What we know:
Layout: H1 2-5, E1 11-14, H2 36-39, E2 46-51, H3 69-76, E3 84-85, E4 94-95, E5 103-106, E6 112-116, H4 124-134, H5 149-154, E7 160-168, E8 171-176, E9 186-190, E10 193-198, E11 206-212, E12 227-235, E13 242-251, E14 264-273, E15 276-285, E16 297-303, E17 309-316, H6 322-331, E18 337-340, E19 346-355, E20 360-370, H7 397-406, H8 408-423, H9 429-436, E21 447-449, E22 455-457, H10 469-472, H11 477-481, H12 483-497, H13 518-533, H14 539-556, E23 570-572, E24 576-578, E25 581-582, H15 583-602, H16 606-627, E26 635-636, E27 651-652, H17 657-665, H18 673-687, E28 688-689, H19 692-698, H20 700-703, E29 716-717, E30 720-721, H21 727-730, H22 757-770, H23 776-791, H24 815-823, E31 826-828, E32 833-835, E33 844-850, E34 854-863, E35 866-885, E36 895-899, E37 902-903, E38 906-911, E39 914-926, E40 930-935
Parallel strand pairs: 32-35
Antiparallel strand pairs: 1-2, 3-9, 4-5, 5-6, 7-8, 7-13, 9-10, 10-11, 11-12, 12-20, 13-19, 14-15, 14-18, 15-16, 16-20, 17-19, 21-22, 23-24, 25-26, 27-30, 28-29, 31-32, 33-34, 34-35, 35-39, 35-40, 36-37, 36-40, 38-39
Helix pairs in contact: 7-8, 9-24, 12-13, 13-14, 13-15, 13-17, 14-15, 15-16, 15-17, 17-22, 22-23, 22-24
Amino acid sequence: MKAHRDETQEIRYGRMQEGSAPLGRRDFIRLGGLSSAMLFAGRMPVMAGPFTAGDLTAHLVPADKKLTAEWIASLTRRGEGEVFRGKELKYIGMPIGGIGCGQLYLAGDGRLWLWDIFKSNYAREKHEMRMDAMTMGGHYPKPVAIGEEYCEQNGAEVDQGFAIRVKKGEESQQRTLDIEGFPELSFRGEYPVGRVRYEDAGFPVEVQLEAFSPFVPLSAKDSALPVTVMRFSLSNPGDEPVEVELGGWLQNAVCPYAEDPTLGKRANALVRDEGLSSILSTIEGSGAITREHGYGSSALTVIDEEGVRVRGVSSLNKIRDAETFFSEIDGGSDEPAAKPLDETLLGGLSASTELAAGKTKVITFLISWYFPHHQKTDPGVARLFTARHYRSWFKSAVEVAAHVAKHREKLIDGTLLWNRAWYDSTLPHWLLDRAMIPLDCTATQTFHWFDGGRPWAWEGVDCCQGTCTHVFHYAQALARVFPELERTLREEVDYGVAFDPENGGIGYRGERKQLVADDGQAGTILRVYREHQMSPDDAFLKRLWPRVKQSIEYLMAKDPDGDGLLTGPQPHTLDAEWTGKISWLSSLYLAALAAGESMALELGDDAFAAKCGRIIDRGSREIVAELFDGEYFIHKPNKELGKHLNTNVGCHIDQVLGQAWSQQVGLRRVLPKKETVAALESLWKYNFAPDAGGYAIKHREIEQAFRWYAMEGEAGLLMTTFPKGGAKDAIPGDKLRSEKNPELWTGPGGYFNECMNGFEYQVAAHMVFEGEPESDLVERGLAIAKAVHERYGAAKRNPYNEIECSDHYARSMASYGVFLAACGFEYHGPRGQLGFAPKIRPDHFKAPFISAEGWGSYSQRIQEGEMEVRIELRKGKLALRSLKVEPQGLVPRQLVVNHLGKPVAAGLKIEDGRALIEFSEALEVQAGADLRIHLS
């Protein structure tokens, strides 16, 4: 231990050793302020260092991050997609159901687990068990693995799996398609698609699984189906034909929490319909079997293929291995079967085909369900909702399967088309992965969609209700991928049940509580403008504008002197009211005014636009004069209003959030560039910690609040640090400790010593937007985002579950903003405006994009005084009146535009170094067509 107190001792920070278990608190040994996790960092992949004890100043965050050259290069390198094997598969749980259809995980070996698709919060005591496990970030230091007790408590145990039998000549082999049958298998997750390769040189057939629920951008209904597609590709690499039989089994789990045999029986039946064969699982019971028990149906289906023979068995004994399964299939009956509720009933299907040498065959299984009786009970609002959205779409699980089979091209092929489009890019694989992953919260118990058409969400799984404004306004993914859902939330929730027509306030938890959070209020106004931009016309904005205008006036009333700074108590997302002058909240207010200004101008309300503009102009000056200390923006509490939580002279993560929001939606600046960049540089200097977990422990005695979102030795951007003092003044009193357990965070706490992903992503996106291509600021923004990505490394925890106070936390959908920033994406659907300013390798760039009515790819090449631009639309259509591109110093004089093989008349302007191409007539680019532009 003495050696580690030596100031010359070299310490490297890095990720946990691959394959190692996550460290718990008791595993940590404090060594002169440095953690045991660092001691063994020499055998870990290293991101930063070496450091000496002298590098850790009194502030505890080294100013020089000493990022290694290799790690810096990894930020922008295209690289390869991460493939997980062995111990890395332990925690894999990719949500694999449709939007609002419950929660079902795909394991790393292709099995399905955590079957929480039946009835959310089916028993209050189980709900409370789940809350105890998940809140306070409990699953971050102690991630859930497949088969653990938590899964039994929070999702029904459902027996399910697949097996394969191959005959080659006189020889036959059979194995389960899982880690036991193929120990060397590998997993690649590209949400929404999970891929498993079942690898074994001694097995005569190569097998790959592609598992997903239909996911088609811009089509929420097609992406909200209660079904999981299991698409198996079977390839024969040999020189002789083989006979292949692929089979699956599924337990009848209808009414999974009912075990009283007097209530009825579970029943299976083989159903053959045009194009598919299914084992339909239902229940035969008295009137006592109701929605309370998870009433409905499930089905295991094979989509029929030419040359494939399908067999079905309605009742199987317990499957122990592949031999048992095929023995049951060979000797079983396709007659209907039923068993009492206290017994287990399984059914199975198999598909057989001959596979010629060198050929590949695809066999598609579907696992579908129909459990529409949701009965969500929101504490404080008695049974707001009774059924899931899909109740009126179908009548049984077989109907779900038939719908998918009938619309296979749109749903299955469409999902794979989007998957290819997303990864057909020059951007780094890690960035594409992480930008999309948090959207998976919509396919968990975080997000619900009810039969009245209204979406509703917790902040995280079963935690903090009401589609909370101050959390969801950070999220960027849902609005860009499924904008219709966000438009519905604005109209039916924020400006519907949550709206107070008396004063324009928006209750931050929907109808449950009419308290207004100032940040949520401003963020919701900004979201209206974003949703308008992601619309094909201005009908949405026209409908909402009177209420939106009133909501802006609500904020104006909190700025009585019109100086652009909010006054009085200001409630916000850190579960408190702060007072005084706060750059974070006032910058959001200014951004909301900028959105109001733009919306008013579009609708011809020039007087209101001018009023907004005057306050913005004044506020942009006042916020710098009052709150910029030369390095960053501070908080000046109003001491006359008493003692409140505050950040005083601390460096706070959201201090320039208003300008970050302005960048996301292309508004005019509300904070000057110079001071904004200085603030972002200060966040890097003072808040980005190579050992964020170690910092949290060291500051625990001051802040009295502690939750694990970064373990020792893991990097992250801290919420607030106090390089100039003030930490002890931030949290008044000693009221945050639990009397029963001093170790427990009880809140509302400081939150300051934590890392929280959604906040980190918004700063990362802002840095990338503000920086010049491949500049230090862009690099730092990417470093912050990649630090989060590496905290969710598969060797340590589930990469597909970002945690903040609960699982699958919605705020993490801010990650998509980093992707938008990397593309320099600008879009305004009603105006037909599209723009790109790539920040990573702009001379050779390609990335996907989504517009109001279509999606595709944008690419550009710059070389030898010429720039080639191409827009390829893969789905839908794109209405276009202008395109703005970044020629990287090239000053083009000539412009050639070609669409459908014909020249298009267009004009060229250079504005602030960017090329604005305006088409003489509005273009409509259709799927399958492309637009080509040549600048020279």
